[in-house]
Amino acid sequence: MNYHWNWWIFFEPSLDGTNTYLTTLFWGLGWTAATAIVAFAIALVLGSIVGVARTAPIGWMQRAGTIFVEIFRNIPLLVQMFLWYFVLPEILPRDAGMWLKQLPNAQFYTAAVCLGFYHAARMAEVVRAGLLSLSRGQKMAGQALGLTLPQTYRYVLLPVAYRIVVPAITSEFLSCTKNTSVGIAIGLVELTGTARAMQENTFQVFEAFAAATVLYLALNMVIVFAMRAVEKSAVIPGLGNRVAGRGR
Amino acid sequence: MSMITLRDVSKTYGDFRVLSGCSTSVSKGEVVVVCGPSGSGKSTLIKTINGLEPIDSGNITVDGTAVSSPTTNLPLLRAKVGMVFQHFELFPHLNIRENLALAQIKVLKRPRDTALEKGAALLERVGLSAHAEKFPGQLSGGQQQRVAIARALAMDPIAMLFDEPTSALDPEMINEVLDVMVELARDGMTMMVVTHEMGFARKVANRVIFMDRGEIVEDADKNEFFGKPRSERAQQFLSKILVH
Amino acid sequence: MLSGFDFQTIVNALPYLFLTGMTFTLTLTLFATIGGMIFGTLLAVMRSSDNRILSGIAGGYVNLLRSLPLVLVIFWFYFLVPFLAQWLTGSSSPVRVDPFWSSVITFTLFEACYFCEIVRSGIQSLPRGQTLAASALGMTDRQALIYVILPQALRNMLPLILTQTIILFQDTSLVYVLSITDFLGAAAKIAQRDGRLLEMYVFAAFVYFVISLIASQAVKRLQKRVAIIR
């Protein structure tokens, strides 16, 4: 093979003139992590609301939840990214549109919100699966004690449902982290993007992508360990670890 | 002539001894019933005979072939010994006809037509000809177990092993399966049957083996066993299951 | 806002969008599904095997690729495939591979990991008695796998396999990062040429939505039917 390996490339200054390529890769990793965390926070909150709505005994709420899930699940993430980034400012009133376009770090906010909504639809399915795996008796028992329906969800159903679906939440978080790389298409300088830029500037293809690969694996491991700790601290004695739902 | 011989067979799962020093034999044409409390190792014992459960020590021969010898061609041996399982284990993705034909074609290399013909004949014998095109999930438990017996018979086995063939069945279906087995015994098939159906044992068994905690406690002629079992454990067991 | 929505742009672009773009997207989806299923089933069998080396290789491969973003994997293979082709053909320099086939290889190798996990869970969900029954009839391990285990595992997993195919259909849009003209790539090219981002991206989203929704509803119906038969 006529490929020239050069592992020292990481210590050469990158195009921005101040940082080495290694430093830019870590900046990329930082943006990846930040985007993933903000996006997943949105996904958890929004996904829980939609998931609850889909199991609530109220017709219009169920329908609204279903429509939300179907829209965000059946359009490719990249297309959604374009809609948020290119189309949304166009259809907003002029002033709001201008404000959006001039926002500093617009790519970051757009990617985080877009991923947040995308994964909210999937989290909704996870939460719903968790709620449906509980026996109907739980809901009745809550209400028989005089709790309102929202209270029953808040104090009886959701605390158990979340614990049941922790493995699925973990895999959603992992998937969300990987999906931040789609932000490359709107110019987000996350990990894959920095590796790609390094490859384009130096032609050291395999060094750049190998470094990104290692960093992604490390990030995965951190998430898995962190979620395992969450799972352990949330264990309810005597309640078997039933697994409901599965995410990519 | 001894068809199946077990000599000093032992097996452990970790610290747990499932079988310890089991020896017995089954002659050609003989029907042997194996009974005992649950967890006594009787299901494990019968699965060692066609090598579905490996053993730690001792030896087992079937029709002169050593089962646990590494040179033995196990698929070949298993093709000669029929087995019927507690949960039938028909193949749910194949209809009844195909269930009966599959191993004949793939293992015995019979032509498809011959296999289907043989299957049809056996289905007739267990009284289920009308169901040839159905899938296992569409039959009752008793019907499925009769198909499973026919599937084993289609291989022209030299002996049949039954592992609690009626214990997963609703009470009203037990007899249709036992009837088939009784008929098989009367036709001279060599059979080893793990079961709690003492009526079946009384009717057709030659010998009864009683197991407890992985040991063969009693291995006696049928009349002797039901007359007055020697061991206290067998007496207790019999009094428990014969009361009702 | 909608008053400015220019439907004529979309109408004019239809032949290019569908004949060039959607054709690429659908053929890529089809080829990668078939390739991914075959390779994925092979990986699943390897992972379930008693041979430590085989299951270790398959497990390592699947876990590695499942840990990486598809975008990064697309870049990896885009640059690797020419070198692989050079190595396979014994050519003296990296071989230029047609973008379509490069994409097919990439998606086959990537999706195989997801198909592998589906098939493997299908195998694991079968009761052990099925394997025992097949062995008791004298079948070898290979015969039991081919005639008894895999047909059931694949059938039980059919809804999940099809759902994965819908995900794959959506994922193919990521070839955009290589400037390949799939359906989205075609829409993006027109959007930039005519300065009609709003129309083209909304239309692209609508088309993906309709196809994925119809397909996923069909899978749901199939799932119910399968559940009844069992």
From TrEMBL, chain A:
InterPro entries: AA_ABC_transptr_permease_3TM, ArtM/GltK/GlnP/TcyL/YhdX-like, MetI-like, MetI-like_sf
NCBIfam families for the chain: HEQRo_perm_3TM
GO cellular-component term (any): ATP-binding cassette (ABC) transporter complex
UniProt keyword terms in alphabetical order: Cell membrane, Membrane, Transmembrane, Transmembrane helix, Transport
Topology with respect to the bilayer: Multi-pass membrane protein
Protein family membership: Belongs to the binding-protein-dependent transport system permease family. HisMQ subfamily.
GO molecular function, one term: transmembrane transporter activity
Residue stretches spanning the membrane: 25-50, 71-88, 108-131, 205-227
Annotated localization: Cell inner membrane; Cell membrane
GO biological process, one term: amino acid transport
Residue span(s) of domain ABC transmembrane type-1: 29-227
Designated name of the protein: Amino acid ABC transporter permease
Ranges in a coiled coil: none
Main localisation: membrane
TrEMBL record, chain C:
Superkingdom classification of source: Bacteria
Keywords on record: Amino-acid transport, Cell membrane, Membrane, Transmembrane, Transmembrane helix, Transport
UniProt-recorded name of the protein: Glutamate/aspartate import permease protein GltK
Function: Part of the ABC transporter complex GltIJKL involved in glutamate and aspartate uptake. Probably responsible for the translocation of the substrate across the membrane.
Main location: membrane
Domain ABC transmembrane type-1 residues, every copy: 22-219
Organism: Aliirhizobium smilacinae
Cellular component GO terms held in the UniProt record: ATP-binding cassette (ABC) transporter complex
